[in-house]
Amino acid sequence: MVTLQIENLPDELYNRIQNLAAENNFTLNEAVIYLLKQGFQPNELKIVQQKKPMSEILQKIRSRPRVDPTNFGLPDSTVLIREDRNR
Length: 87
Fold this sequence. Notes:
This protein is mostly helical and 87 residues long. The protein is 51% helix and 0% strand.
């Protein structure tokens, strides 16, 4: 394999690569290789999800249908919490 050395890498870019590596349990080397692959294959399924605005996340959560746990044979969490508090 070939070794690539990069000179004059801006601190901000280096920090962003470090953050990407930390967030995804990559080494710095793995993060750089991942980014290079993504740059050359933009239609490939991405492992790293882009951060979405909080309003979009909340809207998605609020639009989910309500589920009754008793329909699945599960106890109601309210009853379980009440029992736990009464101990």
